[in-house]
Amino acid sequence: SFLFLSADFFFGEKILKKFRIIYLEELLKVSNDDYGYSFKSNINTNFAVWGNSYYKLCTDSRGFKFNCEDKEKSNYEIAFIGDSFVEGIGLPYEKTFVGKFADRSNLEIVNLGVASYSPYIYKKKIKHLILDKTISFNHLIVGVDLTDLEDDWARRQVSDTDKTLVNKKLNFRLFLAKYFPSSYLILKRINWFIKINIIKNTNVSHLDYKKNKASWSYIKNYKNLNEKIEIQMENMNELFEFLKQYNIKLSVLIYPHQASIKFDKEQSLYKKTWKNFCINKCFKFIDAYSIFFDELKKYSKKEVMEKYYIKGDPHFNSEGNEKVSIILYQMLSNKDE
After folding, report:
1. H/E element holding 260?
2. Rounded distance between C-alpha atoms, residue 208 and residue 292, angstroms
3. Which of 4, 114, 154, 267 is deepest in the core (most CB within 10 A)?
4. pTM, entire model
């Protein structure tokens, strides 16, 4: 074990480069002094690693995920921001709902989403990009994820002098990925093999009734729920007021996790919370949450989860992203006035 770890420490990166397996998800990010972190610039690989698979990933010189072909622009019609669902983690840009909507609508679209973002970072990143004149856009769509509640709560005491916005757990993962990359990749593969082939989704955290981060929407007496919702509202209201100064429209997009399908209901607290927020604020309230519950009229919960989500993972697969892109197109195409 000592010899293997020593070899991994000194030669692990070279070994992975030989097999072109160098883009572990934890190593795709770079810290940012203004809003915490973003993708590294100018990534172009077919071997980005997520879970148990590889996928194509390209970022432009500003660290925005894109289709590897479009030329950079400074002016866009619509900008998307959100966490891993908006990023489309584990999928090439063309198979994400942002990419599919861009292809359908022929509008100028930019994707600013990155995994683990939340309203605190949404407002910080948008303010920075607008004030720094990095890009401009007429309409911002925020994909407010169910996990944003806990992520914003964790960030509530982060000061402006704490530039990393990365918790100790992530720091440890980054350390392993950077200095023992082969070992880290092997451990991730073992973890996914156990989840998919042995545990078979029965007790994994994203489908555990209480442990998953979507549970706040359906569990009664959820700890500090009102305070956590208030933190989110404060950050989103601040973002709304900032956008209003620049005549930029705001829309909110909602969508379910697998746990939502399994445990929640269509008229969930999550849906009600953001629908109420949008009153007199949003250009559109885009409900990509209820459309998946409509599927339960035709299919079982298990069938819906298997059809629209990555196996062993809380995120949408290509078909789930397709479904979200359709409602985006129906609500926004030729109506973004």
Report:
1. helix 258-263
2. 20
3. 114
4. 0.85
